[in-house]
Amino acid sequence: MERKVAREFRHKVELLIENEAEKDYLFDVLRMYHQSMDLPVLVGDLKLVINEPKRLPLFDAIRPLIPLKHQVEYDLLTPKRSRKLKEVRLDRTHRDGLGLSVRGGLEFGSGLYISQMVKDGQAGNVGLQVGDEIVRINGYSISSCIHDEVISLIKTKKIVSLKVRHVGMIPVKSSSDEPLKWHFVDQFVSESGEKKSSIAGLASIGGKEIKEKKVFLSLVGTKGMGISISSGPTQKPGIYISNVKPGSLSAEVGLQVGDQIVEVNGVDFTNADHKEAVRVLKSSRSLTITVLTGAGRELFMTDEERLAIEARRELDRQELMQQKRVALETNKILKEQQEKEKQRKMEISQKAAEEEERYKKEMEKIEAAETKHSREWEEDWGAKDRPKSPSSPRARKSSSPAPPESKTTKAKSSPDEAGSLTEEDKEDDQDEQVMRKTSHASRISNSSTPLQLAPSPPNQRRQMTPVMSKPVMLPQSQTHRPDPLRPALRSDGLPPEMLKRMVPFNASFKSNGKRQVISTSHHLY
C-alpha cells in the first residue's frame, strides 16, 4: 500500500513539475520532515515549490505521507482548493457597491481573481473570499475576456450573478516586463486591515462557525475506520458520523460524532444516500475524506445531553437578560447624568450672560460719568486753559505776547522830542520798564503753576480769572541809601493805571536790590 501511495505521488510530481531541481528540492524537504517532524517548516518549504494554481493538487498528494497525529494540523496549514463551483448574487446598486476588488484577465495570462474584500461588505456577506476565481458572470464564461471586458460585463445588469471556486492564490505582476507570479492569500491584507487566513470553506449554521476539514486514512493492516454513519432527516439531508470508536484511526485523526461527510476520494456526499456512502467508503483502502465539523451534532445527542444543553442555554439567556437590565439601568443613569450636566452648563452660561450684561451696563455708566465730567471740565476751564507740559523760560518768553508800548516809549523813540525830556521823566521811564518786566515775570510764574488757581464751585459755569494783589507802597527808610542801579520810585508823579501794576518792595528787597535784580533778570532771560 505504501509503495502504491509513493508511486502515485511520484507520478503526480512528474506531471505537475517540469524543473528537475524543483523536484529534487521537494523530495529533500519531505525527507527532512520525516527526520525532524516539524510540520510548519515543511508547509513553508512546500509553498516555495507549489507556487502556482496548477500545482495545488500536490498538497493532497502529500497528505498520505503525513502521519495521523499531524493530519489535522496539516489540513489547517495548507490552502484549501475547491473543485465545486458556487453561485452568488450581488446587487450592483447597493450603497456600498459590490464590496470587492478583482485582478487578472486574458492580457495577464491568468483568470479573474478576487484580490480584496471590504469588511462587512456585500461580497463578504454572501460567502465570497479573497483568492476566489470568478469563472462565470451572468452566465457567460470569462476565460477568454480581458479585464476591461469583464468590468463592462459586470455593469450590464443590476443583479450580478457570479460563479466562483476557491483557489487560495492571487496573481501578481508589477510591470509588463516581469513574469507573472502567484502569492497565497495569507500574504495579503484586506482593506479593513485584517489578515486573511488561508483556510477556506467556512460556513455558518445556527450561529456557529462550521469549518471544513480534510483527512487521509490508510486502512492497510487495520480492521476498518472505526466509525458508524447515518443519513440525516429530510429537513437536514446528508451523511453524518453517528459513532466513533475510541482508539481507532478516525479518532486519531480527529473525526467526531456529528461531523458531516461531504466528499470521499472526490465523490460528492451532499446528496448521496446511505447505501452509496457505505459502498464508496469500502471501495478503497486509502481514503481522503472531507468533513464539516459539528454540522450535525444536535442530531445525535442523548436526552441528558439535550437537557444539559437546554439548561446551559437558559443560563446563558438569563445572564444575557441580566446584562441587558444592567445595561439599561446604566444607560438610564448615564442619561440622567448627561441631563444634569447639560442643565448645569445651561445655568452657568446663563449666569455668565447675566454677568456680562451687568458688566456692560456698569461700563456704560462709567463711560457716561467720564463723558459728563469731561464736558463739565471743558465748560469750567476750557480746552486752552488745561495744564500744559512745562517748557524752558526762554521758550515761554518767546511765546508770550509782547507788552504794549506806552505813550512814553513812543515819545522816547521820537527824535524831535528826545532833547526836551527832563531828568524826572527819565527816572519815570526807567521805573516803568522795571515794573513792566517784574509784572510780566509774575504772570509767567502764575500761569506755570496751576495749583495756585482754586477750582470753581459746581454750580458756577464761567471761567475764573486770577486776582492780582494790589501794590503796597512802603515808606522810604531814613537810613536807607539809594540804589545806584535802581533809582527810588516816586508815587506822586505816576498815573493811576501804573500804580495798579506796581509790585511791593519791602526793606529786604531794597537792601539787596542788586542781587534781586540780577536774579529776576536770570529768571526772565
From TrEMBL:
GO terms for cellular component: brush border; cilium; cytoskeleton; cytosol; microvillus; photoreceptor inner segment; plasma membrane; stereocilia ankle link complex. Pfam families: PDZ, USH1C_N. Residues 338-496 are annotated as: Disordered. Keywords: Cell projection, Coiled coil, Cytoplasm, Cytoskeleton, Differentiation, Hearing, Phosphoprotein, Repeat. It comes from the Eukaryota. Residues 87-155, 214-284 form the PDZ domain. The keyword Glycoprotein does not apply. This is Harmonin.
